[in-house]
Amino acid sequence: MRFSCVPWPVIHRALRRKGFPTYIRRILDSYLSDRVISYIGRDDRRYEKPMEAEVPQGSVVGPILWSISFDNILNIDNEDDNCTIICYADDTLIVVTGPDLLYTRVRACILANRVTDCINRLGLAVATEKTEATLFHGRRTGNLPSQIVIKDVSIDLSASIKYLGIYIDTKWLFSDHFRYIEDKADRVIKALNRLMPNLRGPDERRRRLFANAILSIILYGAPVWADELNRSQLLTSLNRLERSVAQRVISAYRTVSVNAAFLLARMPPLQFLAPMRKRTYEQVKKLKNDGDYTKARKDEIKETEHLRMCGVWRDYLEKPNQPMEYTKMAIMPWFEMWMARGHGSMSFHLSQLMTGHGCFAKFLHRIGKRTTRDCDFCGEEDDALHTLRECLA
């Protein structure tokens, strides 16, 4: 279904039912009448077909008329306190609760069929092959129903459903969603990595656009699932993806540790980013509900939560036994300035100095690429500090 595919007679009846003034209805009737589609047939001749639905693509009128026509569906559940219908654009979610599984299943079948009939009366069709259903239940249950029936079509009850881009499972653990975003982000990362080699590739500013695109995929819907992320076994896999993005941003070797890559790229880990997004969302939502929302208040909340998140991240980085000696020594004394800097950029060679992972004898010896740790020029142990501060070569 699309915003613009409601038949015009249905729109006209909805406008009349909602009590729109006559002159408004006449304006819309004039806007929607006497329209044709012109096209070239297979015989290279021009044909015209009168329109009975649709509005010009990109017109704001389309979503408005859709909402007016579709609003009648939301009133179906008013007859039962145990039922709720939620519509967002053309995604319709039916929520049914009940004291036992059999009752809930029967009520779900009845309400789903009523909603389908109402949608059909609008001149639209429900794609039953795309319809999903799931059952939320407690731990102690008997035989669980396996299907619901909509218009003689059996819909299997699955372990999770996708609604507005988020997979919701029966235990609210979001494991299926984390697997989904892991797979999706991984495919995007592999496609974009070829465009950004460490040498002679784009600078950090352009690489950060790549990072933001990936983070927008991973953090989509974070206010919903943020609390479950730290308890998920998939957090390690998601951090591994974010690490690969951070390494690309700073043009670093793949051997650079998670914490070092995140710190140099100024990309906080997901376990800190997701809760920050949730807190920000909840506070902004409260402002809107209270009628106190302004852009300045929103920006203030975002800045406060960002500083709070940076403080938590700093405490985490300063814990002992973190594998990022060179990076901590260079960055942590000036952590706030580093996070807020608006100048300079990381490069392939600078990342080697800041991490110790590069063309240094100590590092090459550790990964089996060199037999000794000695500097070729002075014979001392060759690492990043030696190259930067001690060796005269």
TrEMBL record:
Q: A GO molecular-function term, please?
A: RNA-directed DNA polymerase activity
Q: Where is the signal peptide?
A: none
Domain Reverse transcriptase: where?
1-168
**Mind telling me what this protein is named?**
Reverse transcriptase
Give the keywords, sorted. Nucleotidyltransferase, RNA-directed DNA polymerase, Transferase
Q: State the species of origin.
A: Lasius niger (Black garden ant)
Q: Which PANTHER family match?
A: REVERSE TRANSCRIPTASE DOMAIN-CONTAINING PROTEIN
